[in-house]
Design goal:
By secondary structure, the chain is α/β, with parallel strands linked by helices. The chain contains 17 helices and ten strands. Helix content is 44%, strand content 11%.
């Protein structure tokens, strides 16, 4: 899958990222040669060298659960069999999850299925319609129940702990609706649980009621779980080739294992440059901007991956560091007309990561018309493919000329193997970055306080003190509240 990676000399006239057969990571516009004082210099990269080697060694020595996922053929076969059975008996598949139990599903679906998948008839639609109930907004959940026929719906409840309040509340609502419509016995056939294989209350519920289930490996965190049963079942149910998806991830893993050198390991190089962008250049915001509608939700998925992994109050020594870039998302070309003015002329606090595609699945010609109108006639005879490519290149140049650092991950096409490679590249880049920041990239202590306060307010046993904390906290001063 991968072409040989060209060696980069010490002071190349043109910086180029890793040249892979199925993607290219172009770092040119992160370098000082391109964007001046806001770019990374040779000296800064050289100084990072020992720390980079240590980071690469640490990642290789760590028992990171997500790195085993591309090789779990037993699980893939199990998922494929269950997905085939679900495809035959339902027309709606609802993912019930939040955060890492939803964002990966959405990223795979929008990237690898038809852009209007749910609106197609079946066939050509390859499986049931897919809905991802990733928020507890009451209007959203009530509206979803209005839109689906429970007789033809399977719900996939995803939470490793089995205690996620949002997911479990939706589970209770959907389960009750199924029981009322189908009865207590038949409703079991319409629920699949994805959770910890051994522990947790949801696993106990599976054992007691006999729901079909799939495991989430205990050593795989939610934001790294897209290539586990968490993301694979909904993908397979909708006709995505999950074997090819994992093959792409496997190839990227092999490449990362092969080399610990800059310009040979794209994930390590990406981690190094983004770390320097933050720590040496003050670029504490990273914007991911796909020029592909299919990849829009990959940016959303990456936002959680980068933020939850690297945003930490203390480092491994307990020192307060408040680390991490703030990840944001934009969509080309849509957001050229909303935020590009800020990106080009605003503060020097951002680095842009473009996702580009060489070959789209469709070619859409622009018909010639209005020959007397110069502002229109030049478009005729071209294609939308040409136009979106031109707009991306133009945006990239405008940013670079303004001294705004940017890089690009360039995919030849959007298919299972390239998406598998892309997601795994970003996971490995995050793992390496965690070592460079010297923080634990695999916990999320900042999420717990708000979650525990919510448990207390909702009356969960063991969280009574949290409820009291909320109730005794300082009430808003009416002086600072506007409105009735």
């Amino acid at each position: 899958m991968f072409a040989a990676l060209g060696r980069i000399c010490d002071k190349p006239p043109l910086w180029e990222g890793s040249g892979l057969l199925n993607l290219r990571y172009d770092f040119n516009n992160l370098m000082a040669e391109r964007v001046g004082e806001h770019g990374v210099t040779d000296a800064e990269l050289k100084a990072l060298g020992p720390k980079l080697v240590a980071a690469a060694d640490a990642v290789e020595k760590a028992a990171l659960g997500f790195r085993k996922l591309p090789y779990d053929t037993k699980l893939v076969d199990e998922v494929a069999v269950l997905a085939s059975e679900i495809q035959e008996r339902c027309d709606n598949f609802v993912v019930v999850g939040i955060g890492g139990s939803a964002l990966g599903n959405l990223a795979l679906h929008s990237a690898l299925n038809h852009p209007e998948y749910n609106h197609l008839i079946r066939p050509p639609r390859r499986g049931p319609r897919l809905f991802v109930a990733d928020n507890i907004d009451p209007d959203r959940i009530a509206g979803l129940l209005d839109a689906i026929d429970l007789d033809n719906t399977v719900f996939n409840v995803i939470t490793k702990s089995g205690g996620t309040a949002e997911t479990m509340s939706e589970f209770l609502i959907f389960r009750e609706a199924l029981i009322k419509k189908l009865g207590p016995e038949r409703h079991v056939e319409h629920i699949v649980i994805t959770t910890d294989p051994q522990t947790g209350e949801l696993r106990e519920i599976v054992k007691h009621f006999g729901y079909a289930s799939l495991p989430i490996p205990p050593d795989v965190g939610g934001r790294f779980s897209v290539l586990s049963a968490v993301g694979l079942l909904s993908a397979a149910v909708t006709g995505i080739d999950i074997h090819k998806l994992l093959r792409g991830a496997e190839e990227m893993n092999a490449l990362c294992q092969k080399s610990k050198k800059l310009w040979e390991n794209p994930a390590l190089t990406g981690a190094a440059l983004h770390y320097l962008m933050d720590k040496a250049k003050g670029k504490n915001i990273q914007v991911m901007m796909p020029y592909s509608h299919a990849l829009r939700d990959v940016a959303d998925w990456f936002r959680q991956l980068w933020a939850e992994s690297l945003g930490k109050r203390v480092d491994r020594a307990g020192k307060r560091v408040h680390s991490g870039q703030t990840p944001e998302k934009a969509l080309g070309v849509t957001d050229q007309h909303s935020v590009m003015q800020l990106y080009v002329e605003g503060p020097f606090d951002k680095v842009i990561t473009f996702l580009t595609v060489d070959e789209f699945h469709a070619t859409v010609p622009i018909p010639p018309a209005f020959p007397d109108f110069d502002a229109v006639k030049y478009l005729g005879g071209h294609t939308l493919n040409e136009l979106i490519g031109a707009e991306q290149r133009a945006t990239e140049l405008a940013l670079t000329q303004s001294g705004k650092p940017n890089c690009a991950i360039r995919l030849p096409r959007v298919d299972e193997e390239t998406v598998g490679t892309l997601l795994y590249l970003l996971e490995m880049q995050t793992a390496y970055a965690g070592e460079l920041y010297n923080i634990n990239a695999f916990d999320q202590p900042g999420v717990e306080p708000g979650r525990n306060y919510a448990y207390g307010l909702m009356g969960r046993k063991g969280f009574e003190s949290k409820r009291r904390e909320v109730e005794t906290a300082g009430k808003p001063n009416a002086k600072w509240v506007v409105g009735a």
